[in-house]
């Protein structure tokens, strides 16, 4: 009863204040002169009016009035601060900064904090850091309200150097122990990839709240430390800290197993959050990631009032599960229900199209994005670049890249990676040199460059790039960078050098490093090193069937049938199933999928007949191929002179690679093949990889 009375009193006070304000405005606009208008407003009413302006025009009108008012010079700083804040909240950062600049010689920290926050809230992170630097040059000391916004900007920009300086300022000013500043530091270091510092800060914090736990869990999730993230979440539960939505969302992002997903869902139910739609949406993606699309779909169907996020989450779930056709079907249903997509929706659609490697689908989606005038244009443009790369068209990817009004480190890395995937290592390095003159590369960029050097056999350039990481850019090599180096050395036949490189690594080699060595042993038939790599992989990556298959094939190609059969038997005992190879080809805007021995296509007989003719032509060229069905299907159903685009879910084998070169020669057709690792452009009997793959 008391709560009801208090609520009624508060509502009555708000209503009285609103009525008073409305009456003041009526008197203001009915006054015959500016002098009379000022009589109806006191400073408190004016400030209240500023905060209630909902349009830019109304705020400009009120601003003009304050400039003429008789009390402006007594309350100018307070008024300016509120005007700056309101202009920024209405999206007019130019008006906000112009007004701020008129009094920027002021040492009022609150005003500076408002302007810094305005830049951050409007995603102008560079300007917020510039303003902070200017503030420090004027010897204006920050407080606990300054640091969270500046650190947020550092995190979004991945500017760890500036972040470290701000961290030092927080320590020097005594605010490092403030829980909100500490949480912001953890979030910043997490976005910059320094989870070790995040954990140190967490352990040293004298006070923690649920946001502290959430920040560290999120940092673990962002940096692929999923096991550590779930262990922290479990510890939080054990200590009796009630979770909120955000920490559960971060924990869901760490989940990789069905049992883990079930545990997190029990926490959701136990804390009465099972009807929270944002958690239901996240649960779809979580279960899809664990391979349980049935559970993901069940969550989706259970949401009665599906919002845009629900549809987008289901699209993303199918895309992550490599079910692109299902993802596009959900998108089609969403459009039929007149739910308007946003930029995040299109990022999921783009992922689905990338998985299909459908060039025509890519053109269609790109056209829709151009005409929709969506927000988050930088992310969309970058995703479209990646889409064209994965659909085999570097020309279209580069056109989109060159036309981008703004580029970030991800944009540059994506285009560099595209050149590497298509075997154009020199072009990748040239673009990398251009990038370094404009923006600092990060760890992702170096993966792209090192991978490009590996695929192109650029050993000296790869070493120089690797050595420059820490020396020139302060980027410490991660396991993925070491894996690229092992791959580069291994492809070039420098297997002993690759082994010695692994032995000298300052960190423990992971599955990616050993997998690169095993792949190189397959190329060069080195049984001894293959056994060493496989032994490590069977412990680190025991559920990956590719490791067993590669070792078995190495044994078989070396005539060691008993050892090959032993590995196959080991797979069976461990319940590891070989991934079924399939090939996808797009003909006349329709996607066709084939598996070995497939006779389900209506044109099966005609295709096999054409296959026999093609085999005769290739035999006359001096080669007896082991051809597969999709190439011939593409020749039959595509127009003369058009390129044939094919996607394989596994690495292209040596026999298929050689056969496809002959097919491109005798038919005069370009054949673009995307396998599990890279692209091969076959034309006139040669391949873009130069037989180096």
Brief characterization of the structure:
This is DYW domain-containing protein. This protein has 693 residues and is mainly α.
Characteristic terms for this protein:
693 residues; mainly alpha; Serine Threonine Protein Phosphatase 5, Tetratricopeptide repeat; 6-stranded mixed beta sheet; 37 helices; 6 strands; DYW domain-containing protein; zinc ion binding; RNA binding; DYW_dom
CATH architecture designation of one domain:
Alpha Horseshoe
**Strand order of the biggest β-sheet:** 2-1-3-4-5-6
What is the global morphology? globular
How many whole angstroms does the radius of gyration measure?
A: 30 Å
Low-confidence stretches: 1-10, 24-32, 36-40, 71-75
For the secondary structure, the number of strands is 6
CATH class of one domain: Mainly Alpha
Report, as a whole number of angstroms, the end-to-end distance: 76 Å
Q: In CATH, what is the homologous superfamily of one domain?
A: Tetratricopeptide repeat domain
